[in-house]
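Feature request, filed as a ticket because there's no other form

It would be nice if the structure record came with a short human-readable summary line next to the tokens. Right now we just get the raw output. Example of a typical job, pasted below so the devs can see what we mean:
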Amino acid sequence: MPDPVCLITGVGPGTGSALARRFAEGGYRVALLARSEERLLALEKALPNAKGYRCDVSDPAQIEAVASAVERDLGSPSVVVHNAVGGAFGTFREIDPSILNRNFQVNTMGLLYLARRFSPAMVSAGKGAIVATGNTSALRGKAAFAGFAPTKAAQRILAEAMARELGPQGVHVAYLVIDAVIDLEWTRKRFHDRPDDFFIQPSAIAEEIWHVVHQDRSAWSFNVELRPFKENW
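Raw output as currently delivered:
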């Protein structure tokens, strides 16, 4: 049997790259989607079983083109992780409405396009998994997150609607809320006075997604929340 295929969007220096490494180590052929060709080339060199595809997930035509290329090069994905994210800070009076719309296209519509394209093959196979990575903005609307939180809340509700439809057909849909600051170069600079255990590790996020994707059918999760042990919630 050929190795299974995992498709990951938003392959950046943090969670996306960690996911790519975890699934490659687990025996998957990995399709890497991002807008940065340089980043994709670097990961391709580091991961022999991975192949990069430049893609803007807010564009259904690009998703269709990349999906066809992935199926040709690697095979049909049995796992899709939507990790790409559009974000912005500002109150509802401050934000540019076009930015909110752009974030909606990436976060919510991107998930819709991906699920519509890849779930039929999963249903036919009677198995598969679709996971969206979110954060606390999917659960609450703080004042300065008006350009971002509405899109993540919509993304979570879309994922729930998908889960209720696809679950009985053998396809596991899950939503991962990351209630933490991810350990990245720029977050270390911004929170330079915080200790190491303030941050969540990308590799730990990837490990949990790996676990969720491979859960026994008798005990599937939908809402999954992750936070460091010292996080105030």
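Something like this underneath would help us a lot:
The CA atoms of residues 35 and 54 lie 5 Å apart.
The chain has seven helices and nine strands.
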